[in-house]
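thread: overnight batch results

M.L. [08:02]
morning all. the overnight job finished for the chain we discussed friday. pasting input first so we're all looking at the same thing
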Amino acid sequence: MKNILAILLLISITLFSSSPVFARGGDFVHLIKGNGNAVKQNKVQNSSQAARIVRERVGGKILKVKHNGRSGYKVKLIKDNGHIINVTVDAKTGKVN
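M.L. [08:03]
and the structure it wrote out:
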């Protein structure tokens, strides 16, 4: 009986140590792999999120959102006063420039 419990314990430890573990830390979500390396996800993951962030922080009407490589998104919008402006959204931080 003790041998069976020891074997089951060893199997469960092996299974749980090889599966990915999800944890939330700061503003980033980390995926910790079995080898101990962490993968950071971007705070802004698609053009819809970029548009929402710009609309909340800058206002106006979104005209166009373009993915700007790994660095982020370029958002073109028209302000209430008629001015057309371009802003960038950093994909990692969500910061609007």
